[in-house]
Design a protein that fits this description.
The protein is α/β, with parallel strands linked by helices and 218 residues long. The chain has two domains: 177 residues, Rossmann fold (3-Layer(aba) Sandwich), CATH 3.40.50.10490; 29 residues, no CATH class. Helix content is 56%, strand content 10%. Helix 3 packs parallel to helix 10. 39% of the residues are buried. The mean pLDDT is 96.
């Protein structure tokens, strides 16, 4: 991992000293996600309740610019303008490059149909089976580490050669058995775990943006 990316974790642990215990796991999770993007794969994310909101938050940081402008490549800009100058110029000026991230909590028609027809325990597993491809990464968020629908999705991911990165509370729960790496923030109360998850995933998003789109100033 580039030396300059370490500064993001150092800044994180300066602001949240309690997260120093997660340093190595944050590095490993970053490497897994970076490798997937380097190989044109994607990130799939899921969680329940507040962690569902975190899933969409993460996708929002990755699918557009976070801190750094991400202009489209020049050749794509030229293609847009060649199709329609005025609209193409607008799109070239305003589209932002993405790191593809799919929040599995966002497909209401599909999820409610599955829950109605089957149950809620396979709702993320079904989507991961449909959207996932070998080489992708599943970011599994569970404050307890014991969310049944998250664990079921993790099992499907492993069967599909999809790496699993867990983001949990203090002990990792059962999810840690199935994850390639688990970032276990040092808290047990749900809201306290969630309060520490946010700076962790912001750090990961900053590092990814820096690597793929150029150095940020923090």
């Amino acid at each position: 991992m580039e030396t300059r990316l370490i500064k993001y974790i150092e800044r994180l642990t300066e602001r949240y000293p309690e997260l120093l215990c997660c340093y190595e796991e944050i590095v490993e999770a970053y490497k897994i996600i970076e490798n997937a993007y380097e190989n044109n794969n994607k990130l799939l994310i899921a969680g329940n309740g507040g962690s569902a909101a975190d899933s969409e938050h993460i996708a929002g940081e990755l699918m557009k610019s976070f801190k750094k402008q991400r202009k489209v490549p020049k050749d794509f800009e030229e293609k847009l303008i060649a199709i329609d100058y005025k609209r193409g110029k607008y799109l070239a000026d305003n589209l932002e490059c993405c790191l593809t991230a799919v929040p599995l909590v966002a497909h209401e028609a599909l999820t409610t149909a599955y829950i109605n027809d089957v149950d809620g325990l396979g709702v993320f597993a079904q989507q991961l089976f449909g959207f996932g491809r070998s080489g992708d990464v599943f970011l599994a968020i569970s404050t307890s580490g014991n969310s049944k629908n998250i664990i079921n999705a993790a099992i499907v991911a492993k069967a599909m050669n999809i790496k699993v990165t867990g983001l949990t509370g203090n002990d990792g729960g059962e999810l840690a058995k199935f994850a390639d790496v688990t970032i276990k923030v040092p808290a047990t109360e749900t809201y306290m775990v969630q309060e520490l998850h946010l700076p962790v995933y912001h750090c990961l998003c900053l590092m990814l943006e820096d690597h793929f789109f150029g150095e940020n100033i923090i």
